[in-house]
Design a protein that fits this description.
175 residues, Arc Repressor Mutant, subunit A, mainly alpha
Length: 175
Amino acid sequence: MSPSSAPDVRQIFEAHGDFVWRALARSGVRDADLRDATQEVFLVVSRKVSEREGTSSLSTWLYGIAIKVAANYRRKAHRKREELTDEVPDPVEGEVHGDPEQALANEQARVRLAQILDELPVDQRVVFMMFELEEMTCPAIAEALGIPLGTVYTRLRSGRAMFEEKAGRAAEEGS
């Protein structure tokens, strides 16, 4: 793709920013860190957009970057240190207040989900997440990814089967 035909990063952000945000959130990035992780994705986009070959759809390309950023985030998360301040932090949307056990259980479930999704092959994971989490139709996924509709159905069926197997194993290990 030539630099003159490369889409502007601002246009990409405006069209796909919500998609990237959701992909990061569903890949285990904490709510409090989503803004930074989204910014990191679009920093990568700004560096790589002129090199993009266009062999996959823009959504697929962005999803791949978001998954890598989320994986890096999860690897670094255990080393992250909190800064002490005199300011009271604003509540994070969706955060459970008053029940620390429930908040911990929710965070552990989110991490388990992200780990299971990470274990799916990327082609199956993309289709599975677009269908199950983004609630896109199979024809819309086929169009967005530039693949045949039958391929979407095959990847979705395989992804579901693998997800159910891995989730069942995780549930057995947790009990």
